[in-house]
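tool_call predict_complex ligand=pyridoxal-5'-phosphate
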Amino acid sequence: MKEWTGFTEISKAKGVWLTDSDGNKMIDAVASMWCNVWGHSDPRLVKTIANQSKKLQHSSMFNLTNEPAEKLAKSLVKMSPGMHRVFYSDNGSSAMEISLKLALQYWKNIGNKKKTKIATIKNGYHGDTFGAMSVGYVPEFFGKFKQQLFSTIQFTVPNKYRIPKKYTLSDYEEYCLDSIENRFKKTDDIAAFVMESGAQVAGGVIIYPEGFQKKISQLCKKYNILLVLDEIATGFGRLGSMLQYEEQNSKPDIVAFGKMLTGGYLTMAATLASKKIYDSFLGEFNEWKHLFHGHTYTGNPLAAAISYENLKMYKKNNLIKKIQKTSKVFENFYDEISEIDIVGDIRHKGMLMGIELVKDKSKKRPISPKKSINKIFFEEGKKNGIYLRTLGNIVMLVPPLAISESELELLLKRTISTIKSAKSKVV
Ligand SMILES: Cc1ncc(COP(=O)(O)O)c(C=O)c1O
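tool_result ok
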């Protein structure tokens, strides 16, 4: 914190461009923390907020409901195969807390006292609250709280770039899946398997090998373990499809959405559950089967109205098709980026690219975490007219989903210049 003095203050934004209070313009390569869909100040979304705010800005969902929240829930259920009901919250971490509580309480509700453990994938990230930190344990972020976190059973996902020497990718994938199955076989105490859907994003853009998530889903069914999928960063088009769980042929019992749900304008997240989960919470009052969870802003009408409009715009503008086309622009730059001597690996899917920086290409040695890579890249990026945020030694490109091809080309050219100019400062 001591290093970050004199913050850049953003005073306005339009489309993919952020403007600071000194008038400097930057392309938002972070989509304002991975959530912006249509660019900033989109008149359709701005109008939706204005119109809804004239009718109802907020009303509790404790004992009550409201029209935008109802309409949105119906749309979410309709678009999400296998899902039956929606539980609203106001950020992704809370949506994951709710997912965990639903999964753990489900077994209690149906009278199973044994299933109390959570299985996860190492290096996953699910948010910054205590439950989310427990299931998405990133040692560098959360080491200080380790003693307070609950323990989980952790498995490994194959990272194509860092496969142990004696394996091929497919052998290693098989080894990872075998170790999951062997553990599942051993005891009958795992309540749920929690994982990001399609890829680990904060963990360094680790895109799962084809079929990996499907096989986990099948193992969960075989061993009677709930599958909880976190689509907060990867769903809604980020990886090039509306629902990653559909693309991955996996069948979750519970799924969490956030970030892009509101188009990136207001704060809302949603946890969806299958009928089996929902029904287990129905009972007589004195059976205490209901879920004790609720936030002040649960189902906020402004956020719900904008999310509903956002979903309509996805359809009307055929956004997923557009993303699939625009995403090809990334591929045109693979060679040029790979040629930079500190670039070890490029991982890309849909509107997400991770560029892994290394000190030594042949040995794949990462750049020392002692260097403040994020700050160096932020400053160099700003000089090159882009807002960049790295995660450890990974340069993340996560632009607004509706970015145009020419804007994306400009972003990639500027990213290349930024890596080249930051190089001498990070190695
Ligand atoms: C996969 C995933 N899950 C959950 C979260 C937490 O969301 P929020 O920051 O809205 O709490 C994030 C945030 O980056 C995420 O990437």
